[in-house]
Amino acid sequence: MLVLERGLAVIECFDGQGALSVTDVARLTGLSRPAARRCLLTLTTLGYATFDGRLFRLAPRVLKLGFSYLSSTDLPQIIRPMLEQLSATLSESCSAAVLHESDVLYVARVETKRIISTNLRVGSRLPAYCNAMGRVLLASLPEREARSILERTDRVKRTQRTLTEIPDLMAELDRVRDQDYSVVHGELESGLLTIAVPIRDSRGNVVAAINVGEHVERTTPEHLVSEVLPRMRALQQEAASLLRG
Asked: Domain HTH iclR-type: where (predicted)?
């Protein structure tokens, strides 16, 4: 079990990193250099990583680990066609995500050609505390559980707008819970404005969230609520009729 735990920790430490040295992996995982090296060499032997003599990189085979999970659930297959239609209507990028520990894990995404610097794809993770989908998903949890997750989160002030204090974030979750949507203005990334709503199954359980992201030069929070939110509400209803509880 310890070997498996170490191997998964090594894989996870590559999140957002193109290539890492043994020293990098040891630092990111807390493993000793010999232990980190053994894990990396084992992953290389199994085809989950490559080694150029200096740096290690994850190999395409590692994608099978994530896609095996995604293919075992109906959620991405049901949500993606809806996101495609929503994206085509709005000419904006749309995503769906679930809560994983203190992050949101992207399970479906439809991109437009408009450029926003966050490089997102299926399998990407972002911190939930400063993310519209994350706040929707946190707001769906019991208050004590949501607070516990926030307390365990490294709440970095990513921009001048980012909320990082627990009382401020809990108040925001109360607002999100009451209105059943979240708008985040430039907290994850300057210039990025997003709106998110929860996705529920046929029994009313929140199983995911979807969002629409735009640049502040093209929209306002008021426009998102008045024009984009109604289209997202329609998708909410359609998804609930298809996702079995």
From this structure: 1-60
- Sorted by where each begins, the domain ranges of the chain are 2-62, 73-242
| Cβ atoms within 10 Å of 6's Cβ, excluding its own | 18
Cβ contacts of residue 219 below 8 Å, gap of 6+?
193, 228
**Torsion sign across C-alpha atoms 36, 41, 43, 48:** positive
Query: What's this model's pTM, rounded to 2 decimal places?
Result: 0.70
- Looking at the chain, how many residues does it have? 245
- What region, left, alpha or beta, does residue 219 occupy, with left being phi > 0 and alpha being psi -120 to 50 degrees? beta
**pLDDT per residue over 158-198, tens digit each?**
999 999 999 999 999 999 999 999 999 989 988 889 999 99
CB 204 within 8 A of CB 43: no
Q: CATH classification of 73-242 is 3.30.450.40, yes or no? A: yes
* Run of H or E including 171: helix 166-179
Residue 42 CA to its chain's centroid (Å): 29
Domain 2-62 class, CATH top level: mainly alpha
Among the listed residues 201, 232, 203, the one whose alpha carbon sits nearest the alpha carbon of residue 98:
201
